[in-house]
Specification:
Blueprint lengths: L1 H8 L19 H4 L6 E5 L2 E5 L6 E3 L2 H9 L6 E4 L9 H4 L6 E2 L8 H6 L4 E4 L14 H6 L3 E4 L15 H13 L2 H22 L6 E8 L2 E5 L2 H9 L3 E2 L13 E4 L1 H7 L3 E6 L2 H14 L4 H4 L3 E5 L9 H13 L4
Parallel strand pairs: 3-4, 3-6, 4-5, 6-7, 8-10, 8-12, 12-13
Antiparallel strand pairs: 1-2, 8-9, 9-11
Family: Belongs to the bacterial solute-binding protein 8 family.
Keywords: Signal
Protein name: Corrinoid ABC transporter substrate-binding protein
């Protein structure tokens, strides 16, 4: 449960299969996978045939819906989920389109998701398809006529070693699925340009020691792997926690003691925030408990919206830019 809280927030955004009896709610395979211009994509290590020109897309994270909008297909996103109280991205509503919001702080139930009759379901991680939680599995969705695309950085075999450049893989893949190759190439180039700009800003500079954390109450969890960890590196930071550390051998995040944070003495602390109140509480807590840590002493604390850290979202690039500017403010 705790690991999932991290995956959904920090690190959030940060940490099965049942047999489906079709109840007349799924789109038939023949109506979706008719083979016409179907895209052959390898996702999470498995080859899939995606429906040609999908018109009913459900994004299990608003950021993935935003990515579809950036590819010029906002009107195809019929529903989004896990908004965490945030408004629907303006990229999806700019032309009067209003996708249905299926859920707030958790994935939609199997019944909710199947009830949308999706042709394509986008998810930031594999967790959203956990049968034991009451969510629709990938198999159930495919039996109902929908195909599934999981963000490259959220695939189970990559969750701990993902890279921010996995977003480029998502852009290319979704462009093919949507028949938006030109738009995808332009978006790919724009994304690469943002990462290159961050690299240039950090060039010939001394990398600050950075601790990336998620704090809830008196519990500190550090990020030592995954796409979140990669974002710090892309921004030009030197992570004080790394995948080689034993604590991160099985999961990209781990609880740490106060003594560990003091011992690491980071020059910058980056933390994921679930909202303004959480950000305020976290800053106050750090100031109260770690006044002698360099990052706190010099007020080099960077708050990032937890939504920006979820795999498969343009927010990953926004997070890199925010950190990059905080790490190198004078350049």
């Amino acid at each position: 449960m705790k690991n999932r809280a991290l995956a959904a927030t920090a690190a959030a955004a940060l940490i099965g299969s049942l047999t489906l009896t079709a109840c007349g709610q799924g789109v038939s395979n023949s109506s979706v996978n008719n083979g016409k211009n179907a895209a052959q994509i390898t996702n999470c290590g498995k080859a899939h045939t995606y429906p040609a020109d999908p018109q009913r897309i459900v994004a299990l994270n608003p950021g993935q819906g935003d990515l579809i909008a950036r590819l010029g297909a906002a009107d195809r996103v019929t529903a989004i989920a896990q908004t965490n109280g945030a408004p629907i991205p303006t990229s999806l509503t700019a032309n009067g389109h209003k996708p249905t919001v299926l859920s707030d702080s958790a994935p939609p139930t199997k019944e909710q998701l199947l009830g949308t009759q999706p042709q394509l379901v986008l998810s930031p991680t594999t967790y959203e398809f956990t049968a034991e939680k009451g969510y629709a599995t990938e198999d159930q969705l495919r039996q109902a006529g929908a195909e599934v695309y999981i963000a490259a950085a959220g695939c189970l075999d990559r969750r701990g070693k993902a890279d921010v450049t996995d977003l480029l893989t998502d852009i290319d893949a979704l462009g093919k699925i949507l028949g938006k190759d030109k738009e995808a190439q332009e978006l790919h180039n724009k994304a690469q340009g943002i990462l290159t700009a961050a690299t240039e800003r950090a060039k010939d500079q001394t990398k600050p020691k950075v601790a990336q954390l998620f704090i809830e109450g008196d519990t500190i969890s550090a990020i030592g792997g995954g796409v979140e960890h990669s974002m710090v590196a892309a921004a030009g930071g030197d992570n004080v926690f790394n995948p080689d550390d034993p604590a991160f051998a099985k999961f990209f995040a781990a609880e740490i003691s106060r003594e560990t944070l003091v011992d690491k003495n980071p020059e910058v602390i980056v933390f994921s925030s679930t909202g303004k109140d959480h950000e305020k509480r976290t800053r106050e807590w750090l100031t109260k408990n770690f006044a002698n840590v360099e990052a706190v002493k010099n007020d080099r604390i960077v708050a990032l919206p937890a939504a920006e850290l979820l795999p498969g979202t343009w927010g990953n690039l926004d997070a890199v830019t925010s950190m990059n500017e905080a790490f190198y403010p004078a350049k």
